[in-house]
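INFO  loader      accepted 1 record
INFO  loader      residues=443
INFO  predictor   begin
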Amino acid sequence: MSHLPPIQVGLLGIGTVGSGVFRVLQRNQEEIRRRAGRGIQIATVADLDTERARAVVGDAAQVVADARAVIADPAIDIVVELIGGYGVARQLVMEAIAAGKHVVTANKALLAVHGTEIFAAAQAQGVMVAFEAAVAGGIPIIKALREGLTANRIQWVAGIINGTTNFILSEMRDKGLDFDVVLKEAQRLGYAEADPTFDIEGIDAAHKATLMSALAFGIPVQFDKAYVEGITRLQAADIRYAEQLGYRIKLLGITKRVDGGVELRVHPTLVPAKRLIANVEGAMNAVVVQGDAVGTTLYYGKGAGSEPTASAVIADLVDVTRLHTADPQHRVPHLAFQPHAMSDLTIVPMERVVTGYYLRLRVADQPGVLAEVTAILARAGISIDAVLQREADEVGGEGSTQTDLIILTHDTVEGTMNAALAAMQALPTVLAPIVRIRKEELA
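INFO  predictor   done
INFO  writer      dumping tokens
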């Protein structure tokens, strides 16, 4: 095979990930050629900052400011899109497909929102769209779901798939600090962006969970149906109480096969401290997949960064290089299931989701309060797993008339819990908004 000339790649965007792709390809080109059966060569790089691009590639590749020049070049076989966002990236990906180019992308936002249209266009043109780098950086989770676990009926997937929020939660737990303080520190250290909204509000994790739900269950990407809640309202006190009850709080992306369809949700979650995933700290990512034949599998590693993400981009380049001459019918389908065999399972609305709960109530320190609260839960048919009642002076200092009441419940329907919460909130002895955090045993 190696008499074939190197496959020609056009790189759109040479920031953190793009420069990593260039470096790793240069460094490991011999190894990669032995695996792929032919060389992989970045022929052209498009970046608005042509000076920065030249500083990275030297004279090893042509540098242009206009991405469309790359797409129009008949010599380019594969276009790598590392621009990000929904705007110009969408145009460029659609134009590359129309021009008959294969596409490799790290753009989870684009695929989670516009994937259905993009994959249909690629299917019609007989080209591949590969996106390993879009979820969990260097961890090959797309390949695991799409190929490695293909024998399984997948039951659920739960992942720490945003490093920024995991770093913040780790710091809050280690140092007992509140969210705002740690966010500033994370920004100073470069773990969080100047505008961290996509990360801290859970949107980035939801983009990734959306892609995993499509791969796990053979459904279209449906980001607009995901339930998304970030970590901005989490308090150090709740992390501490969870710990005392044997749990850690993690921002999880969860997708689960249930009777009414598929759950797709991102929110802070209590996870038993003894689970491996509960011990994933700092900016690391981890994904747990439960399949009927294989049982539970765990994928752990760096979810971001220049070379970890480049590792995934290059794996896709190797796949495309091996398969680009293959009959399109014999390639691995974009979303794991054959396009004509996609399922129309619905995404279950949040009020029908079943999960356990952690509740923290700031209450008046007087007799009978616990009884009133547990009576409301009993009437709703919600069973209690554990109760933690703090001494008033531990919570409010000497002579305090308020205390914290912490309740863990067994699995219950979210809609039922919402009604019970409203009833508890209305009690005159409940003195502040009730904190509710969902709990998953992941057994």
